[in-house]
Amino acid sequence: MERSVWSFHQLIEERLARALESGYGARMYFEMFGQIKKILGQLEKWLEAAGAHATAKSFDPSVYLTLRLAPDQFPFARQVQTACDTAKLAAARLSGKEAPKHADNEQSLEDLRARVKSVLEYLNGFSAADFEGAATRHVTQPRWEGKYMLGADYFLEHALPNFFFHTTHAYALLRHNGVSLGKRDFLGPLSMHAP
Amino acid sequence: MERSVWSFHQLIEERLARALESGYGARMYFEMFGQIKKILGQLEKWLEAAGAHATAKSFDPSVYLTLRLAPDQFPFARQVQTACDTAKLAAARLSGKEAPKHADNEQSLEDLRARVKSVLEYLNGFSAADFEGAATRHVTQPRWEGKYMLGADYFLEHALPNFFFHTTHAYALLRHNGVSLGKRDFLGPLSMHAP
After folding, report:
1. Which DSSP helix (H) or strand (E) runs through B139?
2. What CA–CA distance (Å, rounded) separates B195 from B193?
3. What angle do CA A98, A101, A103 make, to 5 degrees?
4. Do A157 and B24 touch (CB under 8 A)?
5. Searching chain B, which residue's CA lies closest to the CA of residue A18?
6. Are B19 and A20 in contact (CB under 8 A)?
7. Which of B168, B191, B193 sits opposite A168 (nearest CB)?
8. CA–CA separation, A195 vs A87, rounded Å?
9. Do the Cβ atoms of A164 and B162 come within 8 Å?
């Protein structure tokens, strides 16, 4: 019995450690990607609102694609492309999968909407189990010249802030150029409960 | 012995469930606030860069405080104040603590830097244990008229996107108005490892 107690204690600790390092982490990443998907869904609505604004004002909607907040910042189209790539590559890198390629050849708001939808479709194919072990995975990319980040650091320090950086710049560019959007359009619906 | 096996099994499941719902969640929130603190630290550097730019160009640095990207968006000062409040209130609400009050009376970039530093100081007082049970905590605020969000939803759907929304708007406003900043100034240093 003494021996059994000790080995069960060990089993508890081992299962806890595994849960901490993989299972729970996997659920956490899955939930974070749920939020990323939600914001991408909102981005698609901003693109729709931009098109409606251009129609109402009788100007070519594709002018949005080249607008910038500063001459040495990405233009609108590349803000949207980079937001999409950040989400897509984060999911791929944290799960050890290959991300689908996109040619960055969007010429219209409709093309950009299709890009967002294609990334949403890709992200919809992930389950929590895909992110098991994500926190300790080694993540790298060509421009890092062989250096790597641990998955947990990569997600928190790189993927998440970059995703919000580019989606917010896309939103801010539209607001700066007359599209009627508000904070609710950024956040989307909230999971509120009645008292 | 049969009985012991069963009760140990139960103990394992209970400890796992507790770990999943509180302990690990607490660590996750603590790490997320680590990232929030990092971005706040970067925001303080952007404010410093804005002051240096104004000095180099011989204009009054306080003009930054009233700049807007759209006439119906918050001006720069309020973007910074709201980023600070979002971080401060998220930590307070998820831990059941009272947040320190700020009077929103900043008149200069230096005042805004002091605001950021004061929130960083407040956040430095938190440990992972403060966020135990955060995911299931009921979070509300006066404007929600009695409705509430669960802590996990509140953090992911509200606090985190709002924090990045306002910090990115502060950054974009400075970039739009000539301050020399780049993505590295937004992200701060990354936890890279040699191959």
Report:
1. strand B138-139
2. 6
3. 165
4. no
5. B16
6. yes
7. B168
8. 35
9. no
Residue A1 has pLDDT above 60, yes or no: no
Rounded to whole angstroms, how far apart are CA atoms B29 and A43? 26
Question: Which of B 118-137 lie inside 8 A of A, CB atoms?
Answer: none
Taking only the tens place, the pLDDT of each residue in A42-91 is 999 999 999 999 999 999 999 999 999 999 999 999 999 999 999 999 99
Taking contacts as CB-CB distances below 8 angstroms, the residues of chain A near B152 are: 31
- Inter-chain residue contact B192 with A165, CB threshold 8 Å: no
DSSP A15-45: HHHHIIIIIHHHHHHHHHHHHHHHHHHHHHH
Cα separation, A96 vs A139, in Å, equals 9
Helix axes A24-57, B24-56, angle to 10 degrees: 40
Is B18's Cβ below 8 Å from some Cβ in A? Answer: no
Cα(A131)–Cα(B110) distance, rounded to whole angstroms?
A: 43
Determine contact: A97 vs chain B, CB below 8 A.
no
Does residue B65 surpass a pLDDT of 90? yes
The tokens of B83 are what?
Answer: 């980023």
Choose the weakest-confidence range: A22-31, A186-195, B148-157.
A22-31
**Pairwise CB contact (< 8 Å): B69 & A176:** yes
Structure confidence by residue, pLDDT tens digits, B101-150: 999 999 999 999 999 999 999 999 999 999 999 999 999 998 999 999 99
- For residue B14 the two structure tokens come to 């209970």
Q: Are B103 and B71 in contact (CB under 8 A)?
A: no
Segment A23-41 shows an average pLDDT of: 90
Look up the pTM and report it.
0.91
Extract the runs of DSSP E, i.e. beta strands, from A19-154.
138-139, 149-150
Paired strand residues for A148? B193
**CB-CB: which of A149, A160, A187 is closest to B193?**
A149
Q: What is the ipTM, given to two decimal places?
A: 0.91
Which residues partner with B148 through β-bridges?
A193
Taking residue B67's Cβ as centre, other Cβ atoms within 10 Å add up to 14
